[in-house]
Design goal:
The protein has 100 residues and is of the alpha+beta class. The protein is 27% helix and 28% strand.
Length: 100
């Protein structure tokens, strides 16, 4: 098994949209994480920010494929009215882990 990579996508939310964002998150992802080849997937929600964390092999390629697929990406349309800007990718540049 190769190295697990981590990709983070941040969404800046419009003021007052945390509740609808929480409902979208509670409904679960509009894709099956295992089918996408992910090892882990998490979402964090703040007052004006949603953070999506994807972990797996070749994770950036897999997530880009999901986003670029017109059929599967249509399910992300419900997020558009909540956004205060374009989604942004953040790549891991530092991580610390305790030894085994």
């Amino acid at each position: 098994m190769g190295l697990l990579e981590r990709l983070v996508v941040t969404l800046r939310l419009r003021k007052g949209t945390q509740e609808p964002a929480a409902k979208l998150i509670a409904a679960g992802p509009p894709f099956e994480p295992a089918d996408l080849g992910l090892a882990r997937h998490a979402v964090y929600l703040g007052d004006d920010l949603a953070i999506f964390v994807f972990e797996g092999q070749d994770v950036e390629e897999r997530v880009r494929g999901l986003i670029n697929d017109p059929v599967r990406s249509a399910s992300f349309a419900s997020w558009m009215p909540l956004l205060a800007g374009r989604p942004a990718l953040a790549h891991e540049v530092y991580r610390w882990e305790a030894d085994g």
